[in-house]
Amino acid sequence: MLTRRIATIALVLLLTVPSMAAARQALEVPASAGPLDLSRRVLRHVEETGQDVAAYVRIRNGTPVADELIAVSCACAQRVELHRIDRSGERPNMVSDAAWSVPARGELAVRPGSPLHFMLIGYDPSVARDGKVRLMLTFREAGSVEADFALTDDSAAAWGAFD
Ligand SMILES: [Cu+2]
Q1: What is the domain partition of the chain in residue ranges?
Q2: Ligand 1 midpoint to CA 28 (Å)
Q3: Confidence (pLDDT) at 13
Q4: pLDDT (0 to 100) of residue 27
Q5: Mean pLDDT across the stretch 83-96?
Q6: Architecture of the CATH domain 30-160
């Protein structure tokens, strides 16, 4: 019986592991602006129109030249702000920044649970296609790039799924 159970577990692993890896790869197509690589592009899914929703991304810069993210936009929102949660006061406060630095040979991690997120103000979920919305990110040096962000019910889990 034990042998049979192990065989069953092995079979389950054999069937699920490759498909999980494939699903992870299929989740995101590569996107880049010049030398900057944009991955882990996720957006909090909501059904209701007119909400403010958060989006996240990891931007990697392999070059010795720093850059700056200076604007984000989406046909799915009235505007997109670069929000930073300021916890220095009595209550957490969302501050809208003008730009975020992408360090040389480093990364800008707009990560769930961190102080940073894109805030899509007045989000319209009807613009989404195939579980994705397209955002445009503009960098001071690298210029503009359009990239799809995957809708998710759990941003932290979606981000972590790339690990
Ligand atoms: Cu915000």
Answers
A1: 30-160
A2: 24
A3: 45
A4: 66
A5: 95
A6: Sandwich (2.60)
